[in-house]
Amino acid sequence: MKPYFLITSFVLLLFNMSFADIKADYHLGYKENGQASYYGKQFHGRLTANGEKYNMYALTAAHKTIPFNSLIRVRDLETGQSVIVRVNDRGPFVKGRVLDLSLGAAREIGMIQKGVANIEIEVLRVGIGDEDPVVSAKPESKPKTQQGKAVNAKEKTSNKKDGTYSIWGTEKKAKGFGIQLNSFTSSKQMLTSAKKARAQGLEDLYVQLVTMNGKQYYRLLYKAESNNKHLQKELRQVKKAGYKNAFIREHKA
């Protein structure tokens, strides 16, 4: 029995080491080749594996093991077209396929007609999985301020002085330039738009509160870069995500 026990223990050890190595592979720059398919209308509105609703128009994807909320670049090896998507689901469950794209992402790389494409995956940012606070499966949970007190979502940035805030109304420092996604006269509309942006992977958000002619405006900005040239490529991706009127704006001091 002892030899059998030793052999079994050794096999289990190798298995655990192999699994650890697989998990460790998911780092910035990790690449993987295979076939991608896409899923569309019949799944629209259903819950994905990370708890959010599937939006066929958003730029998302399903992968068997890459952590949720990771950002990956998907490139069609035949056409060279690429798109950046966020992992929010598990799959595909068809032999030989490594990725299921949303309908919107598949449209970006022109694979709607052919249905399946040979692709290369490159990890641009590794998500932190199920507990990523950026996309929560529990929308009723309230964010916390730096002091640990819950913020009343109804307050948002109403009745505050001009400046830069998080979407929840807490002060947030920002320097350089960002991409303005939209501008609102209502904090409620701003928050709705911000939640939608985060669901599309646009997570580093700022609210630039300004008063003009006695009226407050809530400018929703994405990113904070010291050099606006660094944002040009990002701006193209943002416009592809549906923000056609987005532009680069300087953050207020």
Summary keywords:
253 residues, Alpha-Beta Plaits, six-stranded mixed barrel, five-stranded antiparallel β-sheet, 11 strands, elongated, disordered N terminus
Written description of the protein model:
It is a single chain. It contains four helices and eleven strands. The termini are far apart. Strand 3 (about 70-75) and strand 4 (about 80-90) form a beta hairpin. It has a six-stranded mixed β-barrel with strand order 1-5-2-4-3-6. It has a five-stranded antiparallel β-sheet with strand order 7-9-10-8-11, with helices on one face. It has about 250 residues and is α+β, with helices and mostly antiparallel strands.
What's this model, at a glance?
The chain has 253 residues and is of the alpha+beta class. Helix content is 20%, strand content 30%.
List the helices and strands and how they pair.
Elements: H1 2-24, E1 31-39, E2 60-62, E3 71-76, E4 82-89, E5 97-102, H2 103-108, E6 117-125, E7 163-165, E8 177-184, H3 187-199, E9 205-212, E10 215-225, H4 232-240, E11 247-250
Parallel strand pairs: 1-5, 2-4
Antiparallel strand pairs: 1-6, 2-5, 3-4, 3-6, 7-9, 8-10, 8-11, 9-10
